[in-house]
Every structure is written in C-alpha cells, then in structure tokens.
Amino acid sequence: MKQTVSDNDSAHQRGAASLEEARAWLGERRVEDIECMVPDQAGVARGKLMPAEKFIAHRKMNLPESIFYQTISGDYPDPAGLTGIDPADGDIVLEPDFSTLCMVPWESEPTAQIIHDAFRRDGSPVDMAPRQVLRRVLRRYAEKGLKPLVAPELEFYLVKPNTDPDYPLEPPIGRSGRAEIGRQSFSISAVNEFDPLIDDVYDYAEAQGLEIDTLIHEEGAAQLEINLRHGDPLQLADQAFLFKRTIREAAMKHDIYATFMAKPIAEEPGSAMHIHQSVLDAATGRNVFSDADGSPSQAFHHFIAGMQDYLPAVMCIMAPYVNSYRRLARYTAAPINIQWGVDNRTVGIRIPRSDADARRVENRVPSSDANPYLAIAASLACGLLGMEQKLTPSEPISGSARDLPYDLPRGLLEAVSLFSDCAPIREMLGEDFANCYRAIKEDEFETFMRVISSWEREYLLLNV
User: Fold this and answer.
1) SS (HEC) of the chain
2) Residue 4 pLDDT > 50, yes or no?
3) How confident is the model at residue 418 (pLDDT cuts 50, 70, 90)?
4) How many domains does the chain have?
5) What's phi and psi for 366, nearest 5 deg?
6) Are 132 and 371 in contact (CB under 8 A)?
7) What domain range includes position 111?
8) Is residue 335 part of a domain?
9) Whole-number percent of the chain with pLDDT over 90
10) Model pTM score
11) Cα 129 to the chain's mean position, in Å?
C-alpha cells in the first residue's frame, strides 16, 4: 500500500501563491483544462470547466446565486422570505483560491482543479457560501487571539453498483471473490480485499498533495475510515471536500460505489465524520486547553460546555438529511447524547488521552454526509460560544452512556426548529446563511414526505 506524500512533495504538488505562480504551475504540467469549483450547501462541487488559457486570462467567473440555495434533489425553496437573496437570481463572482490548485489525477488529459470563494459585485462575501461561513467563524477566533486546529475522520462504505433506488445496497465483492458477512473492525485482511482500489486512493491523494494520516476498516461490511492530519480548519475542510471526490472516483474505476450516506445499509452501523479540535494561542502557539502545569484549563472546560449547550442547535448541520438520524441508534457506536468523558466512545464528546500539548476535544456527533465546511464551522462555533460565555460542563461520564436519555434531536424537523430558535448560533454563522439553510432543509423534508416507503406498504397496506 502506498505511503503518504511528504510535506515537501505535498507543497510541490499543491497550490500557488499568486496568478503568476499558477501560470507557471499549469505550464509545467501542460494542463489543458481546469475544473473551477465551489462547494454548495451539500458539499457538492459546482462550477465550470474552462481551458487553462482562459482561466489565466480572466481568473474570475460568474455563477447564479441560486447554487447556494439548491436542495440535494435539485429543487429550490421559495426565496421570497429569505434575507440576502437576490430575487432576480443574479450572478455572483467566484475568485480562485490559488492555494487549492492541484491536479485531477483520474482525468485522461492533464486537468487541474481549484476551489473558489464567492463574492458579490461590490466585493463583499456571499454569506451563504459554506467556505465563507467557516471563514466567518475563524475570524471570530482570530479576533480573540485564538487559532483552532482540527482533524476530521471520514467513514464511508464501499458497495456494489446500484442503479435502482428501490433495492437495498450490498457490500461489493473483494479480491477473494466473496463479500464480507461479519464485523471486521480494524481488520488488515479486510482492507486488503480492496488493495487495488486503496492503492488508487493513495495515488490520487499524492497527485493532489493531500495527506492521509491513517486508513482503517470500520465495523460495517466494507466500511472504511480515512483520518486526515490535524491542521488549519479551512485547509482540512478543503481536503475533506476533495477526498470525498477522490474516493468516489477511485471506487468507480473498480466498478464499485463509495457512499458517504450516514446509514446506507439498514443492518450495518452508520458512518460518521468525527472532528478532533484544539485551540492555540495565536501569538505563542500554546494549546489553551492546557495550563502551564499540564492540567486541563478553564478554557478547555468552557469549550466542552459550549459543545454540550449548542450541539443540539446545530444538529441539522451535523446530521443534514432524514437518513442521517437513522444512524443515531441506541447501543451502537453512534452517540445519542451530549455527555463527555475521557477516552469514552459511548458519549457525544470524547476526550482522547494525550499529552498536555495535544489535548483536544473529539466531536463524535457529525455524520459522514455532512458538509465538512459547515460541520467544522458549527462545531467550532459551539466551543467558542462556551469559551465566550464561560459555561460550565456537566461531570464527565466514566462508564457507558448508552442507557442515558437522548439529548440530541431524533429527526430533521426537530433539529431545524432548534437551529432556527438559537440566536447565538445564528449570529455566529450568519443570519443570511441561517435563513437559507433552514429553508433548504424544510424543502428537502417536504420532498422526502412525498415518497411512500416499503415499510408503509408492508405494514399498512392490508392492516389498517
């Protein structure tokens, strides 16, 4: 299996500091086309494919503002009641972030990709854009002299190709010629079943300058997890965004689907996107979660308390779809509460054992279907509100928390209601974004309600 790319190689493969550096970078690689993209509310890449010469000549591109209030099914909520929305659906301006420039290794011709930021004609940021939402939270930290670090962990399933949504998903066939039938947590041989695919994931990651920390087999049949190295939240959100594309493309090359659905297979565990978080003093680089003697600081406990107070209010971001709530079942690896504990995987907020310099808070609530920009922004917002308000956490849980009551909302509408009613979260993430996001989720729920499930036909058809 391939090893991760070194820091020096990564810097060479990824990013430019200016337009001139980008021009040279593209010329060295004889790039013909560039995928100019921006992540939407679902974390889907939207944008345009353009010739490299045109990109260098013009740089900026226009797209309709409506890309930021489109639902996952391609519909649009009524913009009449939304603030910050142009009723004429005019163009916004997308400007490239040259630091994200990298190759698209699965294309047959030399093709690059670059992530853009969204602005209005007057130069102000589009507050609804997920990348801008995360930037907004990071500015709030910077104003207080703080710098957060994060490390996401992405779980996903490999499944047989499925073109009929009425049929359940099934594990794929590995190199042994057999599909997995049992739980294979941390099994090396289970990962080896898909060695050619995993090798392509590593090759594609190296070509894009992306760094994988570890790759493991999770509990579910053909369920894997990729852990990313800790770093700047915006850079890690970019990496998670690109990794989702990378893993899907590598899987399709082998006639397999990779899915980040939170609960793709009924009898298998759900998939999470755990987020490890720590906060540094921007001036000194000191971890503010630890005091000088190495003990947990007040800021550490305030951060945990903020997570406990505000995670329910951002649940519609952490678990953004109806399917997401199927993952949150009692007596599974998924949390149902906002309790915390040291090295305790039965709670929503786990504190891994570590040295004082590496003290961190693991948010185990988000599902893998969450937009990484929004999930990281919301998670950091919860912790920062706790630090600003000097909140006090509950006592840590030392045993199992799986028998405790549900602290988290059980469904999407309940989660959206909590989000809409939480003024501190709305202010932290931006009112325009909050209004837009609420409308998208409500519209998606209405779309779901138009579908009659197999459960309804099975138990209601002849019995009621």
Assistant:
1) CCCCCCHHHHHHHCCCCCHHHHHHHHHHCCCCEEEEEEECCCCCEEEEEEEHHHHHHHCCEEEEHHHHHCCCCCCCCCHHHCCCCCCCCCEEEEEECHHHCEECCCCCCCEEEEEEEEECCCCCECCCCHHHHHHHHHHHHHHCCEEEEEEEEEEEEEECCCCCCCCCCCCCCCCCCCCCCCCCCCCHHHHHCCHHHHHHHHHHHHHHCCCEEEEEECCCCCEEEEEECCECHHHHHHHHHHHHHHHHHHHHHCCCEEECCCCCCCCCCCCEEEEEEEEEECCCCCECCECCCCCECHHHHHHHHHHHHHHHHHHHHHCCCHHHHHCCCCCCCCCCCCCEEECCCCCCEEECCCCHHHCCEEECCCECCCCHHHHHHHHHHHHHHHHHHCCCCCCCCCCCCCCCCCCCCCCHHHHHHHHHHCHHHHHHHCHHHHHHHHHHHHHHHHHHHCCCCHHHHHHHCCCC
2) no
3) very high
4) 1
5) -60, 145
6) no
7) 7-126
8) no
9) 88
10) 0.95
11) 14
Q: Look at residue 349 and tell me if it is in a domain.
A: no
- 89-122 pLDDT, tens digit per residue, is 889 999 999 999 999 999 999 999 999 999 998 9
Domain-located, residue 18: yes
The 10s digit of each residue's pLDDT in 263-274 is 999 999 999 999
CATH of the domain at 50: 3.10.20.70
Q: Kindly report, residue by residue over 9-41, the tens digit of the pLDDT.
A: 444 588 999 999 999 999 999 999 999 999 999
Residue 247 token pair:
């893993």
